[in-house]
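note to self — DONT lose this again. spent like an hour looking for the file last time. sequence + predicted structure for the chain T wanted, 339 res
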Amino acid sequence: MHFHAVNTKIRSTYAKYIKEQPQLEALERNTVAEVVSFVENWWGLDFGPTFDLYKINRMLEERVYSILVSLSYYLQGETKTFYKAILARYEIRDIKRVMRALVHHEDLAPLRQGLLALPPSFLGSEGGELTIRSFLSNLEKTEYGRKLIVYEDQPMDRILFYIEMTLDRSYYENIFNHMKKLGKKDQKIARELIGTHIDLINLMYIYRGKRSYEILPQEMANFIIDGGYSLHLPKLRKLVRCETLEEYVKEVQKTHYGYLFPSSREVGLIDIEVEHILYEMYRKRIQSTAFDIAKIIALPILLEYTVRDISTIIESKRVGFLGSRTRGLLSIPEEVGDI
């Protein structure tokens, strides 16, 4: 298919929300109120007279989701189906958020208003009790539910990890099934971008599983996401079989992604490093002059990271973090944003 119309729309969206990296300008504001005012002007939104970070995040995410859904009208055939599979990430994010709220015994009322893609009916009737068991039972009618129900009796300190890995694996398997129906040129581009994304997710999850949850290798192997660009299943299985975290890090250092582990680091910092790599990869593809499928793959991630950066900046200002400390937590690599 021809991508001229949708790519023109994407470039316009990119120019407004991402290109000049406005979150770095927001970071320079001195107070929470100044940051919020800046974001309101940037996004053309009114967050109301009182500060509510949850409401701010919800409004930004609603704007992003609306923008991304509108792009589907420019697409046709298998490309449109493939793009809808990409947007399923928002339904998965909703499921993860509900699960986190249930595990941590948080109030579900605000969450009901903030669902983007998951129908509220999956949370049962408003005012009724929702448990992990009942939520997973409600999800059984979806393609994800049958895979998640098996974890309903897992310990609370592990169930989120299992759920997140299972959802991500299901998500990328579905994308790859639709990717196979694209034209050869589009397939090649999609495999490179999404395959690299899968590589990094696999590395991050294996590290997290070994460091924080001490998951057995034979168990971890069940969660590996197939379809990586540089790391294929035999190599991933070898990484999973590493008996210690130190051995795992040394093996990763021998791969294309060795720069992830110049030394032992905290999980949170690995998450941020992965974001930096993906941000740069997608930014370069969206700035390319080519009219191809890369931009519809890149835009959802870049917008998602932008919203996350805004939330990080606002929360950091609220608790009094120094700007230099917050800068290192943003998705924009410092050597890029500070040029």
